[in-house]
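Help wanted!
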Amino acid sequence: MNSRFEKKDNVLYLEITEEIDHHTTEKVRRLMDNEITRFMPRKIVFDFSKVSFMDSAGIGLLIGRYKLIKLLGGTAEIINTNKSIAKVLEMSGILKIIPIQNKENVG
Amino acid sequence: MKSRYDNEMELEFLSKSNNEAFARITVAAFAAQLDPTIEELADIKTAVSEAVTNCIIHGYESTEGLIKIKATLLKNEIEIEISDNGKGIENVELARKPLYTTKGDLERSGMGFTIMESFMDEVEIHSVLDIGTKVIMRKKIKKQEDVEENAEKNEEKNALIN
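Answered by r_m:
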């Protein structure tokens, strides 16, 4: 996972670089929580451009991080999902709390 | 031995979480013989990943055991049977419900069976307490020619209507 923090808007970009399943989530979760508690962002953006696969383990991962950012008074967004990942996300209903943002809306 | 299927394969591996990717990629490679679309292949991969993860987390509760996958092809349909000799599911009806999970502490979403059911055409769950669980999933791969033929037919229909 790569991360980039934009100080100006207090946005933390979390770029996931592996397939997301039950096996990989543990590591990704730890890395994400480290970055979130380190930067205390106002917003986290999950960047899926390098993710080719995600199953329901990803839903649990995103909800968990959403709870953390909510505690900090912030929000979360998703960008750059492929078709099959968008399908899993849509089915879970998670997009009501963590919306997918189109590229042109992202600063 | 003459198989009643066009092709079949069996796979057995330990319930280690790093086998989740191995299992879904292997089944997808086998399913590729039916010439599925990228989307159909992604559906199969996701469903297999969910079933195998269930065996690891729930069936064996993260202890070591064997997971078996049997996949068969007949005409344009793939059947995938994924089984464990784990603790079994107490209430299958409840387990199928969206958002139901017994492992909320592990940040599980409870969407496993829901995803299997919506990404595959049919999902059967057979489970006996302390004996194990077997999930059988089937999916028909739409032949590209059929899709094109239908599109052509629709076009003709529309032309007639207009």
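OP: Thanks! One thing I noticed: The longest strand of chain A covers residues 2-6.
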